[in-house]
Design a protein that fits this description.
Layout lengths: L15 H4 L6 E6 L2 H13 L7 E6 L4 H4 L11 E6 L4 H6 L1 H7 L7 E7 L9 H17 L3 E7 L3 H7 L8 E8 L2 E11 L2 E12 L4 E3 L2 H4 L12 E4 L13 E4 L2 H8 L6 E6 L5 H15 L4 E6 L6 H10 L3 E3 L5 H10 L13 H7 L7 E2 L2 H14 L7 E7 L5 H6 L9 E5 L2 E6 L7 H8 L4 H4 E7 L7 H6 L42
Parallel strand pairs: 1-5, 1-6, 2-3, 2-4, 4-5, 10-11, 10-12, 12-13, 13-14, 15-17
Antiparallel strand pairs: 6-7, 7-8, 8-9, 16-18, 16-19, 17-18
Helix pairs in contact: 10-11
């Protein structure tokens, strides 16, 4: 019998009791991004001792991307590989217990199953999942084997069902990106060292490896500071109101305010922005201030004029702001929002320099209609580089039957960099960079010259890269050369040498009454 005490997920820095696997158990990890799923399965395989046999089952895709980066001197000597075709993924998962029994799995084998979360249909009930697991457990125990299921992509319905299987599964956890962090949420994990539950850790990627950020690096500041009731504010944000109390200090300029704030630890810093041209400078200043003063400082940004877009807002929050107060907020409401952040601690991780933060939120310099391969590679790279600071929208449209591609493509206009589309098997795929879910309909109203439902019979919002068919997009031929989606040009051509002289208005005086004959 193989001892599994040293077989784990391989996340560096976590304790064995939080990541080790036990004989005969089924462990399930849901992961938002497929790139993170590839990282985790590689670390799991590399953590397996060389004398322990292993099996990798890849659902709805090729197994090659999962093993291409395996270290040659780590992991099992024997690794068996299986693939489930995308067209039969649901059927393949349903018959997995029977199919594994036919493959001649060795005693003590470690089995990893990697599949998109939507392979388990939203209609799958808790009882169905429970029966699926219960068919596997006796077979696993009889062979001293262990099954690790890694499901990638949007998994909210599936995850909600799995939470109810705490007596059936040996472990359930989630890996996701949020507010600039990679977070590992441990719901429950049962192994030879006991049970761990209700924990969350912040991770980073170092040398292509998921690694724990030590708690001392996450939060080193004291929870109580002498200046926690002090308010340092630009005078303009109070709309001419005098200092509200002896704890309020008003400054005529942001530079004077930030100079005083350099020594603060838990004070409330209030700055204003009235022009989008100030954004990058303000973001840099907030980043420097947060790095110097720590997470206990409360930073409030008030929009004095419409200047902050969604992506800009996320950048300011990632750089150190606690809250962005939008333009048009009444002063009384503004003061209430300031009070609401008291006692808060900034929750982002201070592990990125300003240039890195800015680069992650900068759209790729591409827009309009692209070929399917370029579309997939661009979207995959955007999701891989993202740490959850901004939300993107990925949408699939089915055109009205009989409507030529040229017709509906020319009724669209993709103005922003990062907004791209492609055609595949008659459907249109659209990716909108830095677009919230509630902003999708207004965005489509700006993109389509006609209402979108006049051009398309169906709109399906996809959860992410896992909902795209990699093989179909990567192998699809380029579309017709004349297909294109117009993009607005902001360049005004200079007049040529033979251009007509522009007309100039001339003032004239008109009489108030008709002249006499």
């Amino acid at each position: 019998m193989y001892r599994l005490a040293h077989i784990s997920l391989g996340i560096q820095g976590l304790l064995d009791q939080q990541i080790a696997l036990r004989t005969g158990g089924i462990f399930w990890v849901t992961i938002d991004q497929s790139a993170d799923a590839r990282l985790l399965v590689r670390q799991f395989l590399e953590a397996i001792p060389e004398h322990v046999p292993a099996t990798l089952v890849c659902g709805a895709g090729s197994v090659q991307p999962l093993i291409s980066d395996l270290a040659p001197d780590r992991g099992p000597d024997k690794l068996r590989l299986f693939e489930i075709a995308p067209k039969v993924i649901e059927q393949g998962l349903a018959t997995l217990p029977r199919d594994l029994a036919r493959t001649g799995i060795e005693q003590g084998c470690q089995i990893a199953l990697v599949a998109p979360s939507n392979s388990w249909a939203d209609t799958v009930s808790v009882s169905h999942l429970q029966r699926w697991c219960e068919r596997l457990r006796p077979w696993l125990k009889a062979r001293d084997a262990t099954l690790l299921v890694i499901a990638h992509g949007e998994a909210s319905p599936l995850h909600a069902s799995l939470l109810q299987l705490n007596e059936t599964l040996s472990g359930l956890s989630r890996l996701y990106r949020h507010n600039g962090d990679i977070r590992y949420q441990l719901h429950f994990w049962h192994n030879a060292m006991g049970v761990s539950a209700g924990q969350e850790f912040k991770l980073s990627i170092q040398d292509k490896t998921l690694t724990l950020i030590p708690q001392t690096a996450v939060d080193t500041q004291p929870r109580v500071a002498d200046d926690q009731h002090v308010y340092l504010a630009e005078r303009a944000v109070l709309e001419g109101t005098p200092s509200l109390s002896r704890h309020w200090y008003l400054f005529e300029s942001r530079e004077a305010l930030l100079e005083q704030a350099r020594t603060a630890r838990a004070a409330t810093i209030i700055v204003g922005i009235d022009n989008s041209h100030q954004l990058l400078e303000l973001a840099q200043q907030l980043h420097d201030l947060r790095e110097r003063c720590g997470p206990a400082l409360k930073i409030v940004v008030r929009e004095m004029e419409p200047a902050v877009r969604y992506r800009d807002e996320r950048l300011l929050l990632a750089c150190g702001a606690n809250i962005i107060v939008p333009d048009g907020t009444l002063l009384s409401r503004f003061l209430s929002l300031i009070e609401s952040v008291q006692g808060q601690r900034w929750q982002h991780t201070r592990n990125s320099d300003f240039a890195t933060l800015l680069e992650r939120q900068r759209p790729p310099q591409i827009r309009g209609l692209v070929n399917p391969r370029e579309f997939y590679e661009t979207v995959e790279q955007i999701y891989a580089d993202s740490l959850g600071e901004v939300t993107h929208q990925l949408v699939k449209f089915q055109p009205v039957q009989g409507l030529d591609e040229d017709v509906f493509l020319n009724q669209m206009c993709l103005r922003r960099f990062g907004d791209i589309a492609c055609l595949l098997n008659g459907d249109l795929y659209l990716f909108l960079f830095a677009c919230r879910a509630d902003g999708l309909d207004p965005a489509l109203g700006n993109i389509c010259r006609l209402p979108w439902h006049d051009l398309f019979v169906e709109r399906q919002v996809l959860s992410g890269i896992a909902d795209l068919s990699e093989d179909a997009l990567m192998q699809a031929p380029p579309g017709a050369a004349h297909w294109h989606i117009p993009v607005e040009s902001f360049v005004t051509p200079s007049p040529g040498s033979n251009s007509r002289t522009p007309l100039k208005p001339q003032p004239i005086t008109l009489p108030l009454r008709e002249p006499q004959p």
